[in-house]
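Job type: complex structure
Entries:
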Amino acid sequence: MEKTLSVLNSMVQDGVLKQYAIGGAVAAIFYVEPINTNDLDVFFSVAGDETDLAILAPLYQYLGNRGYKIQGETIDIEGWPVQFLPAFNALLNEGLNRAREIEFNETVTRVMRAEHLVAIMLQTGRLKDLARVQQFLEHEAVDETKLRDVLTRHGLTDKWSAFKQQREL
Amino acid sequence: MKTYPDITRLLKAKMERRRELARLSFEEKIEIVNKWRELSRQVRRIRETDLVSTDRGHGTDRDDYRNTLS
């Protein structure tokens, strides 16, 4: 994992990525118990107004030149299949910009904050996402006030109320 | 009326174990995930071998299949 993160940092240093933040299951693992996952979701900011997936081309070219192979939707970087996801809405963009800087052994990386992860999971709304929201709550991994701010800003308060009602929270 | 055993204590212990896991460092947690990923890879390999073995009419015994190949 550390080597994978170093490669991501190199991509920022070399200007291929403007900024990145880890999201998805690996980011969740930072806050809760380990979760079985196979890939690393990396959100990145899009500099211009690109709307199609051509924005992935320079990333894949950079990595391909370094010998990393594409595997379906992901690219294998030092043993971790990495899925690059452009921050395609305001919530993801905010999550990316406000990600926290952490150290993984000797390597600095950026992980989305718990409140943004919960909001994103709520927005996505798949069963596995909602189960993961429950995990965050059980582990008291979120600051409720900060979470409410995020949910309000991104129009997710109704979804939150429905989730809490359904789970009898 | 049938009575069932009280498993409250077991559930409590289970939650406590989850909390312990959550308290591990990020590096330790990723190490656990890496072990799971390796196990999944092994299971996938065995499954694939079994499928190929069955396709070729060698039953599902992996050792037999390996001997056949060698």
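Summary: The mean pLDDT of chain B is 82. Chain B touches chain A through 16 residues (CB under 8 Å).
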